[in-house]
């Protein structure tokens, strides 16, 4: 039978006789007359302190088994704690061991272990204070996302994971097939000797979605304001602190929104979910401020309290060019700005988040609306300290002839995208949207510096364990 969680027990604050708690032993220490164990069940950062006294029973046989990592149920009395640090403690009367744990072999030791090591035991690292706190914050952040959109009139939609549309046109889709790739000889071929995807499960070549945007546009042009929140995949071999092959993306899409409205929404959204986590996870956030990123609370204040700078790409280039000596990639008008430039603007120059917009069409996605200057598009990126790009979005090209011309110019197979063009054929409206990388948002709110440590089981180049 389920019991109240330790979080619930501690929150109620009420002493009670005949209470019970289950969880894993964090530590145990023995003094002459008493033994103390710290019990944690993952419901909150705080442990339940359990006190074993000879007055309440003979624990001599069971105490040696109460080692770090062992799983137990303790029955006893919840009483006000004389010790510092907790209001209540449990006076144990009965102990049941569920599963023992060999302290020599258990990889999660009390002493500080490195993030690199913990990635090799990702199935056990949620038992550490830091990763449990990260996962609870992740859940709260997801909750804050849904409540923001729900409170602002958006409809939550689900877009497909298998898709034939490369939404970014960047050729980073993972292929997906039902063919048995371990038996190459058995895969159907065309006369030209190429794989015959018309005989694959979907009757065509498909992949894992890089973004729900295109389907999201179809839904926004029916429902008005929608958002997706789901996994997206990129087969880019980027081995960096901020790239994953699998990451979650939040993608709102709004009919009748222009670029300025899109920027306003992105700023308000980021501020709101940041505040949500600060309000709902004070104790877990304190852990990160104390042990992971000492400047965390100041950094988050910087996000929630400042108006994000609006900066045109052309003006960004003017600011960056004189600084070229410090950059690996030299800036001139037309280059796609890299993380070193983004971080310079945000961390050194403006010292607050920046929304950069109107970038050259050559470095922009095909669907971004062309400006009247014919050279730049109505795209925007939200850049934040430590991470660089957190959000990418745009006003969408809603003129059929312009969009089609651009797709042809990029040698896209226009026939495959007729459904997307239909959205411009039938009742086209100005519309805009953006994508926020959920893992990058997690890095921002926790101060964790590597994207491998904000998912339970990250997927990055060379690593798909568990
Ligand atoms: O800038 P991106 O590529 O934009 C899109 O996919 C648009 N279709 C979104 C839209 O307008 N609906 O990706 C959006 C965000 C980035 O700003 C970044 O935060 C995150 O997704 N992102 C990644 N996060 C982790 N690992 C990767 N490999 C990422 N690539 C993008
Ligand atoms: Mg982008």
Shape: elongated
Cross-sheet strand order for the largest sheet: 6-10-11-16-15-14-13-12
Q: What can be said about the biggest beta sheet?
A: 8 strands, mixed
- Helical run tally: 12
Helical residue percent? Answer: 25-40%
The span between the termini is: 30 Å
Following the backbone from N to C, one meets helices and strands in this order, namely HEEEEEHHEEEEHEEHHHEHHEEEHHEH
Q: Beta fraction of the residues?
A: 15-25%
CATH class of the largest domain: Alpha Beta
Class from secondary-structure proportions: alpha+beta
User: How many β strands by DSSP?
Assistant: 16
Description:
- The protein is built from 12 helices and 16 strands.
- By secondary structure, it is of the alpha+beta class.
- It has an 8-stranded mixed beta sheet with strand order 6-10-11-16-15-14-13-12, with helices on both faces. It has a 5-stranded mixed barrel with strand order 1-2-3-5-4.
- Strand 4 and strand 5 form a beta hairpin.
- The longest helix is centred in the N-terminal third of the chain and has 23 residues.
- The protein starts with 5 loop residues before the first helix and ends in a 20-residue tail after the last helix.
- The mean pLDDT is 96.
- The structure holds 4-amino-1,4-dioxobutan-2-aminium adenosine-5'-monophosphate and magnesium ion (MG).
- 4-amino-1,4-dioxobutan-2-aminium adenosine-5'-monophosphate binds next to strand 11, strand 15, strand 16 and helix 12.
């Amino acid at each position: 039978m389920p019991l109240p969680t330790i979080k619930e027990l501690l929150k109620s604050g009420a002493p009670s006789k005949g209470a019970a708690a289950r969880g894993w032993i964090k530590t145990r220490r023995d003094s002459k007359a008493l033994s103390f164990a710290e019990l944690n069940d993952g419901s909150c950062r705080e442990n339940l302190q359990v006190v074993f006294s000879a007055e309440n029973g003979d624990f001599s046989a069971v105490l040696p088994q109460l080692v770090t990592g062992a799983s137990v149920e303790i029955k006893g009395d919840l009483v006000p704690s004389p010790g510092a640090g907790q209001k209540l403690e449990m006076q144990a009367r009965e102990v049941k061991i569920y599963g023992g744990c060999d302290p020599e072999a258990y990889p999660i030791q009390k002493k500080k272990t490195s993030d690199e090591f913990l990635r090799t035991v990702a199935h056990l690292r949620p038992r550490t204070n830091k990763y449990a706190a990260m996962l609870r914050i992740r859940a709260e952040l997801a909750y804050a996302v849904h409540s923001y959109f729900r409170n602002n009139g958006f409809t939550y939609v689900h877009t497909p994971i298998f898709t034939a549309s490369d939404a970014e046109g960047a050729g980073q889709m993972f292929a997906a097939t039902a063919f048995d790739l371990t038996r190459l000889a058995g895969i159907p071929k065309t006369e030209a000797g190429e794989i015959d995807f018309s005989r694959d499960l979907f009757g065509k070549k498909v992949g894992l979605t890089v973004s729900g945007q295109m389907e999201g546009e179809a839904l926004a042009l029916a429902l008005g304001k929608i958002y997706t929140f789901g996994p997206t995949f990129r087969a880019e071999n980027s081995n960096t602190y901020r790239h994953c092959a699998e990451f979650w993306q939040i993608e709102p899409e709004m009919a009748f929104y222009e670029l300025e409205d899109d920027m306003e929404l992105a700023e308000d959204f980021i501020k709101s979910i940041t505040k949500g986590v600060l309000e709902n996870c004070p104790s877990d956030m304190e852990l990160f401020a104390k042990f992971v990123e000492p400047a965390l609370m100041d950094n988050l204040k910087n996000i929630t309290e400042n108006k994000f700078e609006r900066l045109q790409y052309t003006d960004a280039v003017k600011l960056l060019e004189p600084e070229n000596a410090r950059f690996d990639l030299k800036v001139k008008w037309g280059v796609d700005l890299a993380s070193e430039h983004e971080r310079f603007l945000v961390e050194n120059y403006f010292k607050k988040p920046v929304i950069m917009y109107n970038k050259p069409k050559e470095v922009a996605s095909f669907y971004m609306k062309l400006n009247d200057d014919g050279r730049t598009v109505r795209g925007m990126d939200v850049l934040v300290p430590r991470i660089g790009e957190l959000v990418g979005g745009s006003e969408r090209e809603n003129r059929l002839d312009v969009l089609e011309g651009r797709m042809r110019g990029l040698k896209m197979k226009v026939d495959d995208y007729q459904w997307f063009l239909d959205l411009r054929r039938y009742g086209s409206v100005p519309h805009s949207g953006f994508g926020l990388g959920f893992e990058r948002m997690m890095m921002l709110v926790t101060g964790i510096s590597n994207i491998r440590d904000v998912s339970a089981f990250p997927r990055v180049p060379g690593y798909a364990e568990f």
